[in-house]
Amino acid sequence: MDGNRCDPELGKIAEEIMRCKRCPLYKTRKNPVPGEGRCDAEIMFVGEAPGAREDETGRPFVGAAGKLLTELLEGIGVKREDVYITNVVKCRPPGNRDPTEEEIAACSPYLLRQIKAIKPKIIVALGRHAAKFLYGQAGLKWVNMTRMHGKIYDAVISGVEIKLMATYHPAAALYYPKLKPLLVEDFQKLKKLLEEIRNSAGPRGRTILDYF
Ligand code: URA
Ligand code: SF4
Fold first, then answer.
1. Among 83, 169, 175, which residue has the most ligand 1 atoms within 8 Å of its CB, making it the best to mutate?
2. Of the residues 22, 41, 51, 161, which has the maximum number of CB atoms within 10 A of its CB?
């Protein structure tokens, strides 16, 4: 992308997460999982919370669901290292239970700051928890995944203008194989959206009108 637009805030956020005790999850985590990827990524993926493998390694989406996410990205010609991947909640809930409202409230300011620092063009919510949170931030009404998956909305989150898309969590598609084609379809929509965005703005964000 623009090369030198890495915001140093991104590293500071990760440092704060590494020593965070803002909710009880710090007591049971092995490693917090701040997120990883390009600081100037065009696309940001937001999951729910780290699982066992993520807790062990400190990296997001490195288990079975992560392998599927990487494959889905490859399927649309995007490299995993070119996007940014994180979660709403940065520490693993014990036994992979759902994060509580309190944990989401305590942790989500980190995600909002990451969005502000990265300024992605597209945010993809992976699964219901991330989708509900991000739809809420965007002032959009969340119904359910069956209704909302693959829909692309113009939204402003953390003061950043983005396109927001929710899709099924890759772990859900591993559990219910019938969901996988829907996930593949939604990634095709993502591919098209990415092409549209790339075609409409040149390297300095110009449109064709700037040349007349
Ligand atoms: N599931 C998530 O929601 N996030 C991860 O990082 C891994 C699995
Ligand atoms: Fe802090 Fe978030 Fe971890 Fe809770 S889950 S301790 S708020 S980083």
1. 169
2. 51
CA of 48 to the centre of ligand 1 (A): 6
104 lines ligand 2 (CB under 6 A): no
Q: What are phi and psi of 23, to 5 degrees?
A: -145, 165
Residue 188: both structure tokens together: 């095709």
Query: Tell me: the pLDDT tens digits for 192-208?
Result: 999 999 999 765 555 55
**Residue 51 to residues 140, 147, 165: CA-CA distances in angstroms?**
28, 27, 23
Rama region for 37: left / alpha / beta (φ>0; ψ in -120 to 50; rest): left
**Region of residue 61 (left: phi > 0; alpha: psi -120 to 50; beta: else):** left
- Ligand 2 atom at shortest distance from the alpha carbon of 20: 1
- DSSP bridge pairs for 116: none
Contact present, 43 and 122 (Cβ < 8 Å): yes
Which ligand is in closest contact with the Cα of 45? 1
Q: What's the chain's Rg over C-alpha atoms?
A: 17
Strands 84-87 and 122-126: unpaired
Tell me the pLDDT tens digit for each residue of 127-142. Answer: 999 999 999 999 999 9
- Provide the whole-model pTM: 0.93
